[in-house]
Design brief:
The chain has 127 residues and is mainly beta. Helices cover 0% and strands 46% of the residues. It is built from no helices and 11 strands. A hairpin with a 6-residue loop joins strand 4 (33-39) and strand 5.
Length: 127
């Protein structure tokens, strides 16, 4: 088990940037594939980005590719999501999640691959 706590959400104007952080407890953080998901009101929770345990591989949803960047610092037990050129369609609660499954298995886009979830942080983009 790992406990995850997100931070960094807030209100930003369209075209702006935010950096989300997700701090993890426990000594096994560097073993987890980490993902970011988001859920807008009335919609399903959707995949945003994932990063391998070492940080060497990253994957993105098409809707955020080129605008968002996921990274991790295993010495700080933290994963980040840098979000640039935000638009109102990015408004959602953002969740980080941890998976024991290696990212190479291709399951990183599926919510069911992740065993541990944070409580979420609200991101609101105004037009």
């Amino acid at each position: 088990q790992v406990q995850l706590v997100e931070s960094g959400g807030g209100l930003v104007q369209a075209g702006g940037s935010l950096r989300l952080s997700c701090a993890a407890s426990g000594r096994t953080f560097s073993s987890f594939t980490m993902g970011w998901f988001r859920q807008a009101p009335g919609k399903e929770r959707e995949f945003v980005a994932a990063i391998s345990s070492s940080g060497g591989s990253t994957y993105y949803a098409d809707s955020v590719k080129g605008r968002f960047a996921i990274s991790r610092d295993n010495t700080k037990n933290t994963v980040y999501l840098q979000m640039n050129t935000l638009n109102p369609e990015d408004t959602a609660v953002y969740y980080c999640a941890a998976s024991w499954l290696p990212i190479g298995g291709g399951t990183y886009r599926s919510r069911t691959a992740y065993d541990n979830w944070g409580q979420g942080t609200q991101v609101t983009v105004s037009s």
